[in-house]
Amino acid sequence: MSAADRPEGRTHRLSVVIPVYQGEITLTELLGELDHLTSEFTTPDGNVAVVAEVLLVFDNGPDGSASVIRTLAEKYPMVRPVWLSRNFGQHAATLAGMASSGGDWIVTMDEDGQHDPADIGRMLDVAMRAGASVIYAKPENAAPHGVVRNAASKGAKRAIRALAGGLDTTVYQSYRLMLGEVGRSVAAYAGAGVYLDVALGWVAGDVATCPVLLRAEGGRRSGYNLRSLLSHFWRLVLSSGTRGLRVVSVTGFLFGVAGLLLAIVILVGRLAGDATPAGWTSMVIIVLLTTGAVLFSLGIVAEYIGVAVNMAMGKPLYLIVSDREAGPLGWHRPLP
């Protein structure tokens, strides 16, 4: 039975949130595709939906994305620019857009064109069939990155799933559909350093996936380098709960057992009359093992403390400002 046949059937209003860092080349084509969804359309299951707004969150990237956003806002009535005071990163920019949205549903997608807006209707159908508040796109083809990066991403998500217990991090994707009230609530309470999908998992009900095909990235280079990818992974680790602290305890225990076994081996060798080395080699090995274990443990504990301190000090996850060209920074005067 279609949405129109049900007494409570209504048009689903969609807010599309796109964090923009390097979208100068790809945004225009992507907005052209989204424009086709700004009139009411019917999904394959008969649900009626419309893209009510597209929030372009400018994350202060190095290219000319700001000018493109201004042009698109003049061309398309549904475009709402969201200006951040500085670069805060993809997750913070996405949360800023979610907090500024007003739709029944929120769709988050990348700026590079690899996410096809035509899949939004099918994602909504999955949400309605499953009664799920969060839907993740499930790529059926390899992401348009290198083989090493794709393998590392899958391996990292599986490792975090094992570490975090109940969180299925393998389904995490930046192409998502979520209930608007869930997304806006998460954006309201999420603290500095939070991993968006972990925060969604804290409050979301049922989570489902929708198969999609990823497209090429529109001829632009990825905005992620090795350092940012490692930072991305570490934020996921710290946001996934306190099981990392258990790793510290287990690591210390294992090194303690290894030290005890080594001591027994040395003692038995001495009693058996084996030639006893001068001792410095064993001492160096023990010192390196124990020191490494202590530093590793302190590092993990310090990271958790750092997250808590940032939240206690009120460090903002993002700050929304006006378009700098519309304010005092844009009041250029000609030189005499």
Automatic annotation (TrEMBL):
GO molecular function: undecaprenyl-phosphate 4-deoxy-4-formamido-L-arabinose transferase activity
Transmembrane segments annotated in the record for this chain: 245-268, 280-305
Keyword annotations: Cell membrane, Glycosyltransferase, Lipopolysaccharide biosynthesis, Membrane, Transferase, Transmembrane, Transmembrane helix
GO cellular component terms listed in the entry, alphabetical order: plasma membrane
KW Cell membrane (keyword) present: yes
A Pfam family recorded for this sequence: Glycos_transf_2
Stretches assigned to the Glycosyltransferase 2-like domain: 15-141
InterPro entries in UniProt: Glyco_trans_2-like, Glycosyltransferase_2, Nucleotide-diphossugar_trans
Biological-process GO terms, alphabetical: lipopolysaccharide biosynthetic process
Similarity annotation: Belongs to the glycosyltransferase 2 family.
Name assigned to this protein: Glycosyltransferase
Natural source organism: Pengzhenrongella sicca
